[in-house]
Amino acid sequence: MNYFISRVLYLLVVFVVAVSGIFVLVNNMPGDPAYGLAVSIAQQRNVPLDRALEIARNIMGIDPNESLLTRYGKFMSNLFKGNFGYSAFYNTSVNEIISRSLPWTIFVISLATFFSFIVGIFLGAFAAQKRGTVIEWIISTLSSIIQAVPPFILAVLILFAFSVSLKVLPLGGAYPVDVEPSFSFKFISKIFLHALGPMLATAIPQIASWTLAMRGNTSQIMEEDFIRFAEIRGLRDSVIARKYIRNNAVLPLVASLAIGVGYMLGGHTLVESIFNYPGIGFYFSKAIAARDFGLLTGLFTLIVIGVIAATFIADFVYALIDPRVKLK
């Protein structure tokens, strides 16, 4: 219980510091956060820009005469109430944007996480068992190269190869505009097809990371005394690999899995933008382009929450599955 409380307090401090840094960074960016909404109001209502700025600031709850400290207090108060702010570009609350975009991001990241972890674990264990051979060298070298490639570069390559050239994947969107959302097989299959591009761009670097991590863990476990003892006992190689090597090698990676999900949430931003996929990353890039400070702050905060929550889950899960770690 003491471990649980200490981790919660530690991550709460990390959250406050990270969110405070985001607030200071965004609020010191040049420009008026209400300007985008003011332009829209001026065009729609045919009023002068100065008057539109007053209306926009009133809608967004911005007082230009307030100090940074006062705005920070209001921001933190709203945040702990679950209010992530207001988007000037979309003229709606950030909560509304999150509610319609987060499910798509979670869907793609979940697919990418499951696929990359399974494939990476298999390739890593296979490479370790073939250590000293050409197969291990090929898998390790390719994994090292692929791991260094940013996901957005892969997204561009996948989009060009499979959407533009081969035309086997759609160019963008979550589903075709001419398909009515339903629980039909046609609609569900289209959702998976549209998610395949961003999923692969996110999953491929992760496959390389899991492969290298599993290979390293497996190689280390294979040098342990209990493995040699199992071999002396005459156990079959398949039994040793399945019950002794793989289980112990996977153990540290299970905890890292949650952290990987959190960091994929942040690294997925440009991928969704390239595929025009309506997730968190898509709106994040729109917020940067439109200088929508409210939306930018809200989505930044959501990503921080995702990473911190994933870190906490990883710590907790590792303490539960590893007998060497106890929750005191």
Description of the structure:
The structure is a single chain. The chain is an all-alpha fold. It has a domain at 104-321: MetI-like fold, CATH 1.10.3720.10. It has 13 helices and 2 strands. It has helices at residues 2-27, 35-45, 49-60, 68-80, 94-129, 134-147, 151-165, 185-221, 225-232, 237-267, 269-274, 280-290, 293-321, and strands at 86-87, 92-93. Strands 1-2 form a two-stranded antiparallel ribbon. A hairpin with a 4-residue loop joins strand 1 and strand 2. Helix 1 runs antiparallel to helix 13 (293-321) and helix 7 packs across helix 8 (185-221). It is globular and about 85 Å long. The N and C termini lie close together (5 Å).
Structural class: mainly alpha
Overall residue-averaged pLDDT value? 84
Number of strands: 2
Instruction: Report the β-strand fraction as a percent range.
Output: under 5%
Distance between the termini: 5 Å
CATH topology descriptor of the domain at 104-321: MetI-like fold
Query: Based on the structure given, which CATH architecture of the domain at 104-321 is correct?
Result: Orthogonal Bundle
Radius of gyration of CA atoms, rounded to a whole number: 24 Å
Enumerate the spans where pLDDT stays under 50 for 5 or more consecutive residues.
none
- Amount of helix: over 70%
Overall, the morphology is: globular
Number of discrete helical segments: 13
Features:
13 helices, 76% helix, mainly alpha, two-stranded antiparallel sheet, single chain
Task: Characterize this entry briefly.
With 328 residues, this protein is mainly alpha-helical. It has a domain at 104-321: Orthogonal Bundle (MetI-like fold), CATH 1.10.3720. It contains 13 helices and two strands.
